[in-house]
Amino acid sequence: MGSLVSLVSDVLIVLLCSLAILGLLFRQMNISVPVDPLEWQISQDTANSIVAWLANTIGATESVLRVPATGHDKRLFFKVVFCLYMLSALGRLVSGLTVAYAGLCLFCLYMLAEISRSISACLS
């Protein structure tokens, strides 16, 4: 029970910190985000394209991972085993939530760098 409470609190902390970072970024870029989820409406075509992209991505991933799973390509099989072992070792060292939060922070910094680059290109 204690680990469940710890997991829930970790998830809430990561979500709150992520929302705070995104809020600061949006405030810096003068982007207004509607708070009411009912205002977040997308068209049927957009929803269809998102679902189609997701289905294609999952299908492509499944077909790519089927090759090493069958063992026909030994070199690829051992590369996948090595990568999974390294991810397992990383998971033993740090929490998955920590890695996800660090990835979100790096993504936000990347987006900020891209936006500042495009703004400086427009100004010059």
TrEMBL record:
<protein>
    <submittedName>
        <fullName>PREDICTED: reticulon</fullName>
    </submittedName>
</protein>
<feature type="domain" description="Reticulon">
    <location>
        <begin position="3"/>
        <end position="107"/>
    </location>
</feature>
<dbReference type="InterPro" id="IPR044177">
    <property type="entry name" value="RTNLB22/23"/>
</dbReference>
<feature type="transmembrane region" description="Helical">
    <location>
        <begin position="6"/>
        <end position="26"/>
    </location>
</feature>
<dbReference type="InterPro" id="IPR003388">
    <property type="entry name" value="Reticulon"/>
</dbReference>
<keyword id="KW-0812">Transmembrane</keyword>
<dbReference type="GO" id="GO:0005789">
    <property type="term" value="C:endoplasmic reticulum membrane"/>
</dbReference>
<feature type="transmembrane region" description="Helical">
    <location>
        <begin position="100"/>
        <end position="119"/>
    </location>
</feature>
<keyword id="KW-0256">Endoplasmic reticulum</keyword>
<keyword id="KW-0472">Membrane</keyword>
<dbReference type="Pfam" id="PF02453">
    <property type="entry name" value="Reticulon"/>
</dbReference>
<keyword id="KW-1133">Transmembrane helix</keyword>
